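ok here's the first one, seq then struct tokens
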Amino acid sequence: MKTPELPDEDSPDLTDEEIGRAISTVNVDDLTQRITGDLGPGSQLGAHELRRRKPHLYWRARLRTPEGERTLIFLTDWLQGTP
């Protein structure tokens, strides 16, 4: 997996509500498994982006489903080498 470019500063568009519902992940396999579990028939992964709220790193993913768009947020501190 290519190492993503990590944001240096806190992301102003990352909300407290998103942080409160962030799904903790431990590695890329865990993240992949959690994403594919939410992708049902006719769904696909759309846009995704890394966001920071120090000291944590988050990955926001938008899923396109037959019912509309859903946004999931994952805690991905492991991307920056911290547990």
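and now the second one, same deal
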Amino acid sequence: MKKSLSVNGHVDVATQSDLMRALMVSVMEFMARTGMSKSAIQHVVLQCASKSTSRRRGGQLPTQAAVAFGCDTIAGAVLRAWHKFPMYLDSAARPVSLRLDGPEPNLSSLILSQNSRAEPKAVARSMLNAGLLRMKGAKAFLPEKDAATIGALDPLAVDHIAKTIMRLVETATRNIAKSRDKLQLIERYAHVPNLSKSEAAAFAAFSRQQGQACLDAIEDWLEARQTNHANNKRSAKGAVNAGVHIFAYIGEPQISTARAPAAALRKRSMQTPAARA
């Protein structure tokens, strides 16, 4: 069923429900694979719904907080192409302003070149609301950033977060599947239980730098091998979504009433970090 666009470029509430339903299906399928019974899963879901309702009293997202499926990946691809390809750059290699429609190059054609099924108006509006684009004059757009980094829980961020969780669950489930025909995908993490709190800022900067370098290399590799689905429908039929998510995390300080022996702490800190491929 095709979703209709509202005036502000968002899709209707049904699409938001579809997105959240897909997220919950992914999570519950994974729960079932761990051996939980249907009744146990239902009990956990009801508990979570009850807690979520009580927490929302301090503020909640607007009801129409969804954008077109795939918008999280399109935004990054559009910004990258806008900063990379000569047709979108001026003589000083800076991005040129683009109108949504009209003579090419325009923003609609740029968006569709990254995903032929995208809704250009919805994507442009979402990127503008997220601070990834800015207006130049009354009708032209310029990129505000060279990457889709989002600093607020707006519709684009909701779309991205939900899909990040679904992709993680899909990868983990694929890797534990018994079928030998399944490709094994990397899904690993590095972790220590006792990073000094004073090193948190340094860790954030280091992981951001290393993660961006990794992503740049992977994006170059992927872009060199993608099909031009905007112009080649035959090759698009054999195309799949592929990518890598990278994120860092810092937990809250653990408050313990009992102090573990020093020997035990040293032993834990020397343990090999859990990893799974």
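notes on #2: The two ends are 37 Å apart (CA to CA). Residues 200-223 form the longest helix (24 residues).
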